[in-house]
Amino acid sequence: MYKMASENTDLYKIIQQLTERVNRLEKMVQSHPVVDAPSTSLSQWIDTCTIITEDVEMVYENNGYANAMRNCIRRNHANISIPIMIYKNALYVYESNSWEKWDNSTHMNMFTRDIWRKFVKLHMHTTPDPSLEDEMHDLQRKRILEMRQKLYEVKKNRTELYRWLMKIDS
Q: What percentage of residues in the chain have a pLDDT greater than 90?
């Protein structure tokens, strides 16, 4: 009889320990959701990102920097989703085989810089319209070269792009 009571007490302790472990695991899963890894990282997505003439021409318009960038991102996102997610009102990005919290000095800088370089490359390889005057060609080149600075270094524009990225799928 004593042996049976001892076994029941041992079983009860084991059940309590298991219950505590399950509770800890549930809390851990709630605070760190398990999300499948996307097929591409942010760097890979940027590498496959394509710029078209329409994007470059949007930059030439007044305040066209942000519109051109959003147009480019939206079109490329339709083909391959940007590896980002929102969790607890913060943006996370998939990079280096893990989810990282979006950091403006790292991720936004890389994002705007690398896509901007593609804008510059397409602009430089596009034959200028012969009907335009040299001053207009210079102004277009200036707008393309200013694009990264306007998008990344101006806090208001950087914040708007960040907020837009958070809502890209809604």
A: 51
User: Which of 152, 113, 128 lies closest to 53, judged by CA?
Assistant: 128
For the residues 17-29, what does the mean pLDDT come to? 76
Contacts of 62 (CB under 8 A, 6+ apart): none
What span, in angstroms and rounded, lies between the C-alpha atoms of 109 and 86?
A: 19
In this structure, what token pair is assigned to residue 125?
Answer: 């390889």
Angle in degrees, CA 130, 136, 142, rounded to 5? 125
> pTM (2 decimals)?
0.75
Q: 3-class DSSP state for residue 141?
A: helix
Spatial contact of 95 and 89, defined as CB atoms under 8 Å apart = no
Sign of CA dihedral 96, 97, 98, 102: positive
Q: Does the pLDDT at position 43 exceed 80?
A: yes
DSSP assigned state of 157: H
Measure the CA dihedral 9/12/14/16, to 10°: -140
Average pLDDT of the segment spanning 98-110: 90
Map tokens 């510059």 to a residue.
120
139 vs 116: which has the higher pLDDT: 116
